């Protein structure tokens, strides 16, 4: 049973790997980006709040994000492990995750850091072509990653497992499983 957090810049392939790793490790893949996009697709109040931030390459405010994750982690399938993809993205979010885990007597197994050069990130996102993958928005998301999310690598330093996330999807999965001893 594992409780993992994936951290990496936008376009690093967190969502791609999380889908595979979740299956291989038999834990639910919980993606805040996917949860927001599902809410936007269903025009829920939460989706309406998230949309303008995502379109601008900004983070959705912590109070909205934290509550959504708190509810998702309370569901039965998350009690025996999970893989968090895209959360936490700020140190206040990491504090909230710490509280949720402590309240339930849980601990993180590891934080997997995806290492990819910036020019490759931009190339992948432009190829992906999601609505928030325009050049200006990508630049803003990268800047937000450096200022808001990168500090998590220091916050979690004892738990960080860094993997080279360049190469085929299969090779990266193998590297991640190896690094995690799975
Ligand atoms: P996310 O949905 O988390 O998206 P991402 O970081 O851009 O992408 P990811 O790293 O998952 O890359 P992917 O696998 O798709 O976030 C979107 C937005 O949601 C944020 O900007 C923010 O506004 C909001 N949000 C989410 N979480 C939040 C939070 N906690 N707090 C506040 N706001 C939050 O891969 C990228 C592309 O590369 C794909 O096309 C893929 O096919 C390709 N690819 C993958 N692996 C590859 C490989 N090995 N080689 C070549 N291409 C590869």
From TrEMBL:
Q: Which Pfam families match?
A: ADK
Name the chain's protein: Adenylate kinase
Write down the HAMAP family for this protein, in alphabetical order. Answer: Adenylate_kinase_Adk
Q: Where does ATP bind?
A: 11-16, 128, 167
Q: What class of enzyme is it?
A: transferase
According to the record, the segments passing through the membrane are: none
Q: Give the record's pathway.
A: Purine metabolism; AMP biosynthesis via salvage pathway; AMP from ADP: step 1/1
Function recorded in the entry: Catalyzes the reversible transfer of the terminal phosphate group between ATP and AMP. Plays an important role in cellular energy homeostasis and in adenine nucleotide metabolism.
Entry's localization field: Cytoplasm
Q: Where is this region: NMP?
A: 31-60
User: Is Flavoprotein found in the keyword set?
Assistant: no
User: Where mainly found?
Assistant: cytoplasm
Question: Could you tell me the keywords of this UniProt record?
Answer: ATP-binding, Cytoplasm, Kinase, Nucleotide biosynthesis, Nucleotide-binding, Transferase
């Amino acid at each position: 049973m594992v409780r993992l957090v994936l951290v990496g810049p936008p376009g690093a392939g967190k969502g791609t790997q999380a889908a595979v790793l979740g299956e291989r490790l038999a834990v639910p893949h919980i993606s805040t980006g996917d949860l927001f996009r599902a809410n936007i697709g269903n025009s829920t109040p939460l989706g309406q709040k998230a949309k303008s931030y995502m379109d601008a390459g900004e983070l959705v405010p912590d109070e909205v994000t934290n509550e959504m994750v708190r509810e998702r982690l309370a569901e039965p399938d998350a009690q025996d492990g999970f893989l968090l993809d895209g959360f936490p993205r700020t140190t206040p979010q990491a504090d909230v995750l710490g509280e949720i885990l402590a309240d339930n007597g849980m601990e993180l197994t590891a934080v997997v850091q995806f290492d990819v050069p910036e020019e490759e990130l931009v190339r992948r996102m432009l190829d992906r072509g999601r609505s928030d993958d325009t050049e200006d928005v990508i630049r803003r998301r990268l800047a937000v990653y450096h200022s808001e999310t990168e500090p998590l690598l220091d916050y979690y330093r004892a738990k960080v497992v860094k993997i080279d996330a360049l190469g085929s999807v299969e090779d990266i999965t193998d590297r991640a499983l190896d690094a995690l001893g799975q």
